[in-house]
Write the structure tokens for this entry.
Amino acid sequence: MMARASEAAARDAAQTGASPACPLLRVEHLSIGFKMYDPAAPYFRARKVEVPVIRDLALTVRAGELLAVVGASGSGKTLLADALLGRFEPNARVAGDIWFEGRRCDAADLTRLRGRGISLVPQGVDSLDPLMRVGEQVVGACGRGRAGRERRRARTARMRELFGAYGLAPEVERMYPHELSGGMARRVLLMCALMDDPRLIVADEPTPGLDMDLAVHALRDLRAFADAGGGVLLITHDLELALRVADRVAVFCAGTVVEETASANFAAPELLAHPFSRALWHAMPEHDFAAACGGEGER
Amino acid sequence: MSLEAHDVSFSYVPGRTVLERVSLAVEPGERVAIAAPSGAGKSTLCRLLAGYLEPQAGTVLVDGERVDAHSARARAPRPVQLIVQHPEQAFDPLARMGRSLVEGVLRPGARGARAGARSRRAALERARETGLLERFGIRDAWLERLPHELSGGELMRCCIVRALLAEPRYLICDEMTAMLDALTQAELWRAVVAIADERRMGIVLVSHSPALVRRLATRVYPL
């Protein structure tokens, strides 16, 4: 793996050992850059340069909490989700410290935790296989033979239980993704994540294209998961929506988290510390709808 | 003088009607928000108003003319322009942005590659003179890029400018800023509203955010 988190892990293994007070997820000094040919140089003479995208990012998610990471589109928020799941592009260089349940994780650990502790609710509804019935996708591959059948039975039962709990009709199981409405498809993606009893859900832009009611509904499912003791990291550009469900908001700007604050502090701009958070507050349609701050979000 | 839908009906699948006998009129200078739950046919109505779809019953008139009649006769851009939610689906993935940006305002008649390039250069020059590129913060470097090399916000700026270059009398904005952050949303809408006021352009907008609708719309039309 390209991640250098491993060498950091070797440096101090002393930090391990979960204490009851330790947060579910802690990220410190996370930096992600890409090695690419210098886009400014002439074509054949271009050298490889490292383009930093995320730098020195820190955040924490506690159990029972929903943290929203709010920032501009195209500013690298999805990269953060990918990093937490150990999904790296071949030319990415990732450095930093990630603790999960008090254990320091390197890239291999994160890959192992994927689906077994940390689950992703992906951005696109097109993550569903269009040619596979919903039920089969949610249950997933179970292997063959007696053990496989056993596993399939258990997972099918779990799926039905989840469908019941989240208000999906049993016939959805037999449907194909194109037969689902936007809201239902979102739920199916969430079901896929919940199948493996994760402790942390990373939800990457789970609401675009949904109207306010449906979006709040979709987020209420995530909220319910957090209230049941899990942790949720919600990545979104929609501050208005995030404020409705999140306990805390991490404001993401120019590749790093500039401020982590309680949602309640967005009641008034004076309670916000960073100028970018204040600019976001002022830009909200119910406040000043101001477009100041020299396009910091757009690169 | 208005954009009018008269008793418009539409269904994608026979027997499953999406819109039934919908009537709506938008005056120049007005900003009308279409309010309805998802799946009620807001986007379909937008497409009908812009002439992307043809109603199965009823008519859509732009200042007294059928929405598709004008462009067929004059070979000019349509007087109603539509901006969709996903800008990454609104550009030819193989065309550079400069080419896509002016595709609506090319003067007809250029034949052959060289004349085509000349005509595009001229069109781009005219586009610059309008000052729209500057107002929406489109940088020269973007014009040489392909759509996948721009972010969602950058692409949306190009979408808006492309539509405004056609000098539409009505602009339809279907969840125009749903994918964008609050700052970019405020900036783009402020610019669009300013131009609409200058040109007395009518706007139809769809948004999932009640706060945005309250901020922008002069009238709400419940579908």
Observations:
- Chain B has nine helices and nine strands.
- Chain B has a mean pLDDT of 89.
